[in-house]
Write a structure and sequence with these properties.
Rossmann fold; four-stranded parallel sheet; globular; 40% helix; alpha/beta; 13 strands; binds iron/sulfur cluster
């Protein structure tokens, strides 16, 4: 097992059961400038001094002040692959969250060190499925006599420990772009799937893309004895969803969709599949972060888009496409609070330390976990 960033989740956000407890706050005006302008010059100078020895990855949900220093931007899997394709860079600075840095460490060469500028940058969704909880769940499935029928599938947004667990049990990792292909593969192999840790991506894919009914799905709660399910429910279910969700996407509601449709005539509602089922069924289009970006880029001038994903990305899309009316789906602003822990002061601190020859905040996955996690990642790459 890898060492967790900390024993407790960074944010106790509803313990995976109550998205309504995670509402943001109203922000009536413009946000203040994020950082001291002198830091921009310091970041530039440190990066220039480091040259090709450092490769900075920037996830789409990062702040503008950080993303300007990224050598490449993308979703978590694309970024890990880009880092692996740059073995000449011994230092990978991952501006994203902890599970992403772990994936990069798994996929990069042994001499490459992956650095997370702030160790507090976790992910509330990944924190909702711990290794011990998932081991306990598997015991429950064995007691119910269904474990042999179950293929575990984990979303990329999970810890290395969970990816390792899935690899050890013959399962696969998926992204929001290939979840259907991963599930098709899993159901060709077994009768049931345990989908970790995002119940919404699992449910939305099963119901909207594979023709399952909502009754084919049950939700396993790690906070309840036996997951809160009877053995019979586990035997009857085709899809066993882990009770986890994204604290950003889980906050959009059907009311957000109804409200924007009432306010903006002709608006197109475009949401990420981590949103709740009632939201994606009310939306016009559903897709991964990359899909959202491509859709806005390809949209006709003058069209209106209410986008249900992280606010940093939506604001950048709006600024990059002034000929289109791009807005955040909800009236209440909400950044991913853990993604936003990576700010310019942390990036400058990390880069200047490297210039001095000091390597801070290295993320390392132990070899046993990495081998099993790699098996699940390789299986994803081999999906038909
Ligand atoms: S946006 Fe959601 S899934 Fe992504 S890092 Fe933040 S909490 Fe985790």
């Amino acid at each position: 097992m890898t060492t967790p960033v900390r024993d407790l989740p960074l944010l106790l956000l509803g313990e995976g059961s109550d998205p309504a407890s995670e509402r943001g706050v109203d922000c009536p005006g413009e946000l203040p400038p994020a950082s001291d302008p002198a830091l921009v010059e310091r970041a530039r100078a440190a990066k220039a001094a480091l040259g090709d020895s450092v490769f900075v990855l920037g996830h789409h949900y990062q702040r503008d002040e950080v993303i300007q220093f990224a050598d490449v931007t993308g979703d978590s899997f694309k970024l890990a692959q880009k880092a692996a394709a740059r073995p000449e860079a011994p230092y990978i600075v991952f501006c994203g969250v902890h599970f992403m840095a772990e994936s990069a460490d798994i996929l990069t060469a042994p001499h490459q060190k992956v650095i997370l500028p702030d160790l507090g940058a976790g992910c509330s969704m990944a924190d909702m499925a711990t290794f011990d909880q998932v081991e306990e769940c598997w015991d429950v499935l064995e007691d119910a006599g269904v474990a042999d029928d179950v293929v575990p599938v984990t979303y990329m947004n999970s810890s290395a420990d969970i990816k390792g667990f899935v690899g050890r049990h013959g399962g696969v990792v998926c992204t929001s772009s290939n979840a259907k292909r991963a599930l098709d593969w899993a159901y060709a192999k077994g009768k049931k799937v345990l989908f970790l840790p995002d119940q919404h991506l699992g449910r939305n894919t099963a119901v909207l893309e594979m023709g399952f009914s909502l009754d084919d799905c049950v939700v396993y709660s790690p906070h309840r004895r036996g997951g809160g399910l009877t053995h019979q429910q586990l035997r009857d279910a085709r899809m066993i969803l882990w009770r986890g969700h994204c604290s950003v996407h889980g906050r959009f509601s059907k009311e957000s969709v109804d409200d924007v449709r009432a306010r903006v005539p002709g608006v197109n509602v475009l949401v990420h599949p981590e949103c709740r089922h009632e939201v994606v069924t009310a939306a016009d289009q559903i897709g991964s972060t990359e899909y959202i970006i491509k859709t806005i880029e390809a949209a006709e001038p003058g069209t209106s888009w209410a986008v249900g994903t992280e606010l940093n990305l939506v604001r950048r899309l709006a600024n990059a496409h002034p000929d289109k009316n791009v807005m955040f789906l909800d009236k209440t602003v909400c950044y991913c609070s853990t993604m936003n822990r990576i700010d310019l002061p942390h990036l400058v601190w990390t880069l200047e330390a490297l210039v001095r020859g000091e390597v801070e905040n290295v993320i390392t996955v132990d070899e046993d976990t990495a081998r099993n996690a790699r098996a699940a990642l390789d299986q994803m790459l081999a999906l038909p």
